[in-house]
């Protein structure tokens, strides 16, 4: 086995992991606050990708700028989904919420099919062609920028959650919903903001990978599954867990592609899931609930 | 003296169950009023109805002359009522400081700092544990933190639900001494408590709730002298 190849796989995996982290952070935020699993997470991300595609093809805006627009649009979508739909089943049994979110996923995927057709596409960015040599390994500039922006967004999100009053109320509602009601936090508003922020994370993540990863409407399902995988590995509801888990899963997939073959990368990430669940059932950073 | 809080024929409950009905009481400015009764008598239900955590089915609640019933809990807190709930209901994975700041988040920075200083003066222990996660505090410290969080909103009425529950006698004494001091500084309180001797020691007046109805009311002295209270609640 060529050491350079392994190093290259490690680096590419790590750089791509920023996006995985960002999308998993969005999912775990929604779950942590509302105890609702967003089955439409990957499909929301695909819409983030198509928005950056539209902005690139129609308005000539580079995805590394238009991710802000994708994030804002997905924030609005998340807010609407929460206010209009999730809010009605927030106290209902889990299977009702699952059915609802699967429904939202189907609607989003099929709307994308109607609007953009089934063919895979990708967004061209001038960064996509540029590479940088670091000794024996090369760095794809697009991946590097994607990684840096994704990590910055994750850091910004944690600053928001830990340093601002609104962020603190979100964490409080996640920690103890009844306690939040008691001290007069408008929990419905907090839920809407949290769902919006979680969706904005995948909106940005989608735009940021739109020049790296070819996508089509059904891509959403596999992105959702990957997000669940990461969140479970990291520990449900843990932001740090989602962040580390994203990097870990991405590196595992990338090394899996090096050691086995590219089509088997999921084998590696799901094996990782099984191993983690065997030894740490609550995930890497999850808290055990009795 | 005018009533700060007035309940008139309050009815509230859960599902098919009516937990309280026809409850009328008033709390005047500056007073500490006890609501005593056995488990399941409807004390907590009454407090939850006041703070908007449970819908009012009939009757009315007035605070400073304006109706409260039907308002959301966030609006009621904004009107100046804070609820220190049974079981404390802190945010366990957040620091003591965060818990307190959340209680006072409606105020601007300067008022919030003043309130924080007051809370730390009342409960120096919270100052020492400022950076500790609330979930790692002892029961007594958690109760202090819950009361502190309630005071951070600088309310005009403090609702206290079982502040002595599950605490060691010496901690109970410390907490009630502090509550007495807060009341002495002018904070109006409505206190629900199973520890009747303590409750009567702190309060000026009291109401006895049985099976969802008020069966007795009076000043501290008259309640202490009542044969019914003596027998059922003081064990004399």
Descriptive overview:
The complex is a heterodimer of chains A (about 290) and B (about 240). Chain A is mainly alpha-helical and about 290 residues long. Chain A has eleven helices and two strands; from the N terminus they run H-H-H-H-E-E-H-H-H-H-H-H-H. Chain A has helices at about 5-35, 40-60, 65-85, 95-115, 140-165, 165-175, 175-180, 185-210, 220-235, 240-260, 265-280; strands spanning about 130-135, 135-140. Chain A is globular and about 60 Å long. In chain B, strands 6-7-8-3-9-10 form a six-stranded mixed sheet, with helices on both faces. Chain B has a four-stranded antiparallel sheet with strand order 2-1-4-5, covered by helices on one side. Chain B has about 240 residues and is an alpha/beta fold. In chain B, helix 3 (about 95-105) packs parallel to helix 6 and helix 4 packs antiparallel against helix 6 (about 140-150). Chain B has two domains: about 1-80 and about 155-235, P-loop containing nucleotide triphosphate hydrolases (Rossmann fold, 3-Layer(aba) Sandwich), CATH 3.40.50; about 85-155, no CATH class. The chains are: A mainly alpha (about 290), B alpha/beta (about 240). The interface of A and B includes residues 171, 175 and 178 of A.
Provide keyphrases for this structure.
heterodimer; A: 290 residues; mainly alpha; ABC transporter involved in vitamin B12 uptake, BtuC; two-stranded antiparallel sheet; 2 strands; 3% strand; globular; B: 236 residues; alpha/beta; Rossmann fold; six-stranded mixed beta sheet; four-stranded antiparallel beta sheet; 10 helices; 10 strands; 27% strand
Helices and strands in order, then pairings?
The complex is a heterodimer of chains A (290) and B (236).
Chain A: H1 3-34, H2 41-59, H3 63-84, H4 94-116, E1 131-134, E2 137-140, H5 141-163, H6 165-175, H7 177-182, H8 187-209, H9 219-234, H10 239-259, H11 265-279
Antiparallel strand pairs in A: 1-2
Helix pairs in contact in A: 1-5, 1-8, 1-9, 1-10, 2-3, 2-4, 2-8, 2-9, 3-8, 5-6, 5-8, 6-8, 9-10, 9-11, 10-11
Chain B: E1 3-14, E2 17-28, E3 32-36, H1 43-50, E4 58-63, E5 66-67, H2 73-79, E6 81-84, H3 96-103, H4 109-122, H5 124-128, H6 139-152, E7 157-161, H7 169-184, E8 188-192, H8 196-202, E9 205-210, E10 213-219, H9 220-225, H10 227-234
Parallel strand pairs in B: 3-8, 3-9, 6-7, 7-8
Antiparallel strand pairs in B: 1-2, 1-4, 4-5, 9-10
Helix pairs in contact in B: 3-6, 4-6
């Amino acid at each position: 086995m060529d050491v350079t190849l392994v190093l290259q796989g490690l680096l590419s995996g790590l750089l791509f992991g920023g996006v995985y982290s960002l999308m998993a952070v969005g999912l775990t935020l929604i779950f942590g606050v509302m105890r609702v699993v967003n089955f439409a997470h990957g499909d929301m991300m695909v819409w983030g990708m198509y928005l950056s595609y539209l902005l690139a093809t129609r308005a000539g805006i580079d995805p590394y700028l238009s991710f802000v627009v994708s994030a804002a649009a997905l924030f609005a979508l998340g807010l609407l989904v929460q206010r209009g739909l999730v809010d009605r089943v927030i106290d209902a049994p889990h299977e009702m919420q699952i059915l609802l979110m699967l429904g939202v996923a189907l609607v989003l995927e099929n709307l994308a099919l109607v609007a953009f057709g089934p063919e895979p596409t990708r967004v061209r960015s001038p960064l996509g062609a540029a590479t940088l040599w670091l000794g024996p390994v090369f760095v794809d500039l697009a991946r590097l920028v994607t990684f840096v922006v994704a990590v910055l967004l994750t850091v910004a999100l944690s600053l928001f959650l830990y340093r601002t009053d609104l962020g603190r109320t979100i964490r409080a509602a996640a920690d103890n919903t009844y306690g939040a009601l008691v001290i007069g936090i408008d929990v419905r508003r907090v839920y809407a903001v949290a769902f919006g922020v979680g969706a904005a994370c995948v909106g940005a993540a989608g735009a940021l990978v739109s020049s790296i990863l070819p996508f089509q409407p059904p891509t959403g399902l596999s992105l959702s599954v990957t997000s669940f995988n990461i969140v479970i590995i990291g520990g449900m509801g843990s932001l740090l867990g989602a962040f580390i888990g994203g990097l870990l899963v991405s590196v595992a997939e990338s090394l899996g592609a090096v050691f086995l073959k590219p089509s088997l990368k999921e084998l590696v990430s799901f094996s990782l899931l099984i191993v983690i669940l065997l030894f740490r059932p609550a995930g890497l950073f999850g808290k055990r609930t009795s | 003296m005018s009533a700060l809080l007035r309940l008139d024929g309050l009815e509230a409950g859960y599902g098919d169950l009516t937990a309280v009905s026809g409850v009328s009481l008033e709390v005047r400015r500056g007073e500490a009023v006890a609501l005593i009764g056995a488990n399941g008598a409807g004390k907590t239900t009454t407090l939850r109805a006041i703070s908007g955590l449970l819908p009012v089915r009939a009757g009315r609640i007035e605070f400073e002359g304006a109706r409260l019933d039907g308002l959301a809990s966030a609006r009621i807190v904004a009107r100046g009522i804070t609820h220190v709930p049974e079981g404390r209901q802190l945010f366990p994975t957040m620091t003591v400081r965060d818990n307190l700041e959340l209680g006072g988040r409606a105020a601007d920075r300067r008022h919030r700092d003043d309130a924080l200083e007051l809370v730390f003066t009342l409960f120096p222990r919270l100052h020492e544990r400022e950076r500790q996660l609330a979930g790692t505090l002892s029961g007594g410290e958690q109760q202090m933190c819950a009361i502190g969080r309630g005071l951070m909103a600088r309310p005009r009425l403090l609702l206290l639900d079982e502040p002595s529950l599950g605490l060691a006698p010496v901690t109970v004494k410390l907490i009630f001494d502090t509550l007495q001091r807060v009341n002495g500084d002018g904070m109006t309180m409505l206190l629900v408590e199973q520890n009747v001797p303590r409750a009567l020691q702190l309060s000026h007046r009291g109401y006895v709730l049985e099976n969802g109805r008020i069966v007795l009311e009076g000043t501290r002295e008259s309640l202490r002298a009542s044969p019914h209270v003596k027998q059922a609640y003081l064990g004399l």
